[in-house]
Design goal:
The protein is an alpha/beta fold. The protein has a single domain, classed as STAS domain (Transcription Regulator spoIIAA, 2-Layer Sandwich), CATH 3.30.750.24. 41% of the residues lie in helices and 27% in strands. The protein has 5 helices and 6 strands. Strands 1, 2, 3, 4, 5 and 6 form a 6-stranded mixed beta sheet that branches. Strand 1 and strand 2 form a beta hairpin.
């Protein structure tokens, strides 16, 4: 079995990175393709970040694919942030299929989405 020459499988590997650009502001950046296999790691990383933050930003702009398990985790994270009275933003700018999946599920309005991390940080400063 051969791969198409323009597909880099390393780009499909799910990645999760947590950064703290400001005190109590966590940015959880997802990259690659996320599905049921990576969902527990996404939940753990974002959940731990939520514990000590007053603003949680989930950046899915590098993501190429998400499935319903990740969409469910995003919605649950937003609910958890609301319960904790924590600001929540979802950074878009993603592959068209990712944005379309969120649109089809009808969750975009609830996820307080923005185009960039900087926009989320500025929104919090208002």
């Amino acid at each position: 079995m051969t791969c198409a020459p323009d597909i880099d499988l390393a780009d499909a590997e799910p990645t999760i990175e947590v950064q703290w650009p400001k005190p109590h502001v966590a940015v959880v950046t997802l990259g690659g393709e996320h599905d049921l296999d990576s969902a527990p790691r996404v939940e753990q990383a974002a959940g731990e970040a939520l514990l000590t933050s007053s603003h949680l930003i989930v950046d899915i702009s590098p993501v190429q694919f998400i499935d319903s398990s990740i969409i469910h985790r995003l919605v649950q994270l937003k609910k958890d942030a609301d319960t904790k009275d924590c600001r929540f933003n979802l950074v878009m700018g993603t592959a068209p299929g990712v944005e379309r999946a969120l649109e089809i599920c009808g969750v975009l309005p609830a996820l307080n989405h923005v185009k960039t991390v900087d926009a989320a940080l500025k929104e919090a400063a208002l």
